[in-house]
Automatic annotation (TrEMBL):
Family note: Belongs to the UPF0677 family.
Protein known as: S-adenosyl-L-methionine-dependent methyltransferase
Enzymatic class: transferase
EC number: 2.1.1.-
Species this chain originates from: Nocardia mexicana
GO molecular function: methyltransferase activity
Amino acid sequence: MRTEGDAWDIKTGVGSTALFVAAARALGGDEEQALAEDPFAEDFLRAAGDEWSALLDGEAPGHPLVATEFGRDFQEFQIARTKYFDDFFRDATAAEVRQVVILAAGLDARAYRLPWPDGTVVYELDRPEVLEFKRNVLADNGDKPRTDRREVPVDLREDWPQALRDSGFDPSVPTAWLAEGLLIYLPAAAVEHLFERIESLSAPGSRVAIEQMDTLPEEAAAALAEQPDESDNPGGEWLRLIYNEPRSEAAAWFTARGWTGERVDVPEYLRAHGRPAPSPEQSGALISTLVSLVTAVRP
């Protein structure tokens, strides 16, 4: 259960979800027709060891990512959102945006794997322990960022705009913002505050990409809550980490303030790219059917 001021590192609490997502990217990106791949995801899992290395080596046949309908759908969903946000950054830099902010960066390795134009600065915000884990793993492997990458060790419940400015962020130039895998872990009031802060720091020409999820239906939430806390049954633990409450719809929020917003639901996005799309009738695919991806641009 989340509590005010709770803390975590890469293997506990909210931080541990980054490893689960990285595992989905590693497994899903190995498929022949995968929409995207993240070669650094495996490095993080190897460094975490234990069940994650076993999963990569095919020695965890009962793991929910490989043994359940949910796992197969979750892999497809994670690869789809990876492509969506990779394309977002490619479009942003093509539009001459050279300042990037990744909120709750977790194990995002885009600073290391995307082709950034000269002069691009990528700011990564997350808890110090999470950033340290990522930095050490990549450094130990000899990997270097492909642009100016700046860590901003800060909890998003703190004054992160000031921490961002202290790291060199310039609010007078266009920025490409990313909030991937974040909103569901924030209460509704905090999401509203996050949007307000992004807008206040965004010069004309800025753009934002957001992943959002509708609230889980009461029946589905109740079923997850009854699941035991076991490694092969992660739904109950995940439910205790999120805030399952209505939030402002991102595309509508930014559009109402003069931005140009677009939203695509994950099943629609998968169909548009020739991939099998889940339906609400598939119990294991419920989460991805509730997720949508949003891009908004400030004129």
